[in-house]
Amino acid sequence: MAPTDLAGPAPTDSSPAPVSAAPVPAAPLPAAERAYRAVKQAILSGESPGGRLLSEAEVGTQLGLSRTPVHEAFLRLQAEGLLDLLPRRGAVVVPVAPGEARDVLEVRRALETAAVRRLAEAAAAEREALDARLAALLADQRSLAAEQDVAAFAQADAAFHVALLEASGNTVALRLYATLADRQQRMTIGSVGRRPEHLATLVDEHRTLAALVLAGDVDGFDDAVTTHLGRTHAVLLGGAL
Amino acid sequence: MAPTDLAGPAPTDSSPAPVSAAPVPAAPLPAAERAYRAVKQAILSGESPGGRLLSEAEVGTQLGLSRTPVHEAFLRLQAEGLLDLLPRRGAVVVPVAPGEARDVLEVRRALETAAVRRLAEAAAAEREALDARLAALLADQRSLAAEQDVAAFAQADAAFHVALLEASGNTVALRLYATLADRQQRMTIGSVGRRPEHLATLVDEHRTLAALVLAGDVDGFDDAVTTHLGRTHAVLLGGAL
DNA sequence: CTGGTGAGCCTTGCATGCAAGGTCGTACGC
DNA sequence: GCGTACGACCTTGCATGCAAGGCTCACCAG
Question: Which nucleotides of C are covered by protein (CB under 7 A)?
């Protein structure tokens, strides 16, 4: 058994919270949320690979929770397309589909270009405010690229692209975009760190993208971001450039 | 009380399924699924307007279910962005945001154009197969337009656009697109039937779109679909053309 | 009349219990 | 040896019970 390893210590008693010595000062986080994050993390990190059969009781025991919050977590993950709930069988981790990388990249391109299109129609002041924000993010990326910290860079990269969506003000697009980030993380993890020497190239491309946004050049952005997304994927995943 | 009217007869006993005289031969549908559909329908149809506070017990009573399946339904609807769950308060129906129509339309345009772009790169045979399918859908639409059955036409219209996404083979995009349809339905319902005399125009535009897809003219499609989506929204919603 | 305080009611969070459904393994018949 | 049927186990579906948290409203003091 023991398909995954979601919890640390196995709780022998059923007390709700084992006192918790977490440094987080905030509320102890509801059980359902803990279950959700734990299972999602296990899936995205590849710890629970595609095809794995998860059972509520099993996960619940490992996390020291009852089945109820785990069940709810499974439901949420099914809605996100990460889990497939089989009626009376269990929950299987949906395997990454063969062409999923291409699918995600295409949608990201479409959403980002749409965001830039809206920005191009907005007041120049709005674009300049965004540009200032992007400049700050670029500075971070430059140092991360210099340190060749691929994991941190991946996060900074995501922040850059999300900033575009946020600035566009299209909340519907932003929500959809967020689910894509999860999927991409899942595809990327496990091969992170493949090409740290190319991170600087990605930063350069980000600078170019920022300039195109500021200029309101939608077509130029569309071309550039298409290339960029493909390269990002290649660098982080270690595929062909 | 009685904010919504989700159930028909009030079940006095707690038997799981009241024999059910439904003509559907399939399984009696799980309780959680029934709760989900009922609540979603109530939201999308506008029966439960934005801002309304729903309680699990209340809905459960109306549907003859316990709180558990209703709770699960609420969770799913929150994931879809239709419900906002307040920790110990209840669930409020998320109101349609002011710019939501524009947001949805932009994303639809982006996703559809992306689909056509991929189709344009695919084999011509694939486009021809799609074209045949679209032609069949167009025939349906023509008769529905003639009958000025706006509700049925709205469904046929959705089917046309979904067919494009399906044919592209981008399952990620297709999933995202499906959630958009829900939102658009919610914006549309309540004003359906405003401009039945313009349905023929929409059919014509669909024919044009189909031709552009067949020809692989991505830019032409992008332009045409942008106009078309705006007009569709206007016709079904009764706004300015 | 106004401000504050307390209790009660309402809500959900979560654990548990029971029952139904499915799968797999085994034993039996051929 | 092979096919089939039966049984036990494992899974989820859902109802229920208990407890915690928040809001509202009434009551009281000033």
Answer: 10-17, 20-23
pLDDT, tens digit (0-9, with 9 covering 90-100), for B75-84: 999 988 899 9
- Span B180-193, pLDDT tens digits: 988 888 887 655 55
Give chain B's domains with CATH numbers. Answer: 1-95 (1.10.10.10), 100-237 (1.20.120.530)
Q: How many beta-carbon pairs below 8 A join chains A and B?
A: 76
Where is average pLDDT lowest: A114-123, B85-94, B191-200?
A: B191-200
Long-range CB contacts (< 8 A, 24+ apart) of B120-123?
Answer: B120/B216, B120/B217, B120/B218
Q: Is the pLDDT of residue A10 over 70?
A: no
Q: Which helix (H) or strand (E) holds B93?
A: strand B90-93
Residue A115, token pair as written in the block: 């965001």
Q: Which residues of A touch B75 (CB under 8 A)?
A: 72, 75-76
- B80 → chain A, closest CA residue: A79
| Range in A222-236, B109-123, B224-238 with the lowest mean pLDDT | B224-238
Test mutation, B84, B175, B176, B179, chain A, max A CBs within 10 A: B176
Residue whose structure tokens are 């909340």: A171
